[in-house]
Amino acid sequence: MTKGRSKMSDISRKLSSAAASLLTLILVSSAAHAQIDVLTGISGLTVRYGSITTTYRFNSSMILNSIGFFTNGSTPQSLSYSINGASQSVDLNSLSTEVSGFRWLTLSNPTTILQNQSVAVTTLGPSVKVGNRFFNETKYFTSFTVNASSNISSVTTNVSGSTISNSNLRVSAYNPGSNVAPEPGTFALALTGGGALLGTCIRRRRIAG
Fold this sequence. Notes:
The chain is of the alpha+beta class and 209 residues long. The chain has 2 domains: 37-173; 179-209. Helices cover 27% and strands 43% of the residues. It has helices spanning 2-32, 184-208, and strands spanning 36-37, 39-49, 52-58, 62-70, 78-83, 86-89, 102-113, 118-124, 127-130, 133-146, 152-157, 167-173. It has a 5-stranded antiparallel beta sheet, with no helix packed on it. Helix 1 (2-32) runs antiparallel to helix 2. The longest helix has 31 residues, at 2-32. The protein starts with a helix and ends with a helix.
């Protein structure tokens, strides 16, 4: 009986150690791949007639996870983005519901943006009648701060002004060993599994003890 309990105790210790290592790895990886918004402190809503393109240039490699389009209650006529000149139109149905004026597109394949490469975001607002003519009224904001951790060297638009944008980006640190940022759901699933494993270890220890 004592021998059986000893074996169970050894198994429990090994499982507990494995579970602790798993949870530590998850927490470290999660911190390494934490997503941040490129622009913060956003304010100053205004509009212009015509499209707006904002270009973000990187001074160091980062992973692009999501693109936020500033809609602020409107339904744009068209949205698109380009990475180093390769343009991609965006289906409105693929966007999240609006939060704080933004509708986000989560990239199915997060993309590594290298040093000196750029991401451009173009928005064209809905058509509105002004007098006897129709114009596309596109919304943008006129004040923001660039998050220093995002490794963005410049944010420029085709609208005059130094702090103007129609969008935002969500990025994470570049890991040379992997060009894909883990999805939040992956960590949640792993944490759940790790928690269950720890629970199993505790129960087995009680039975063995």
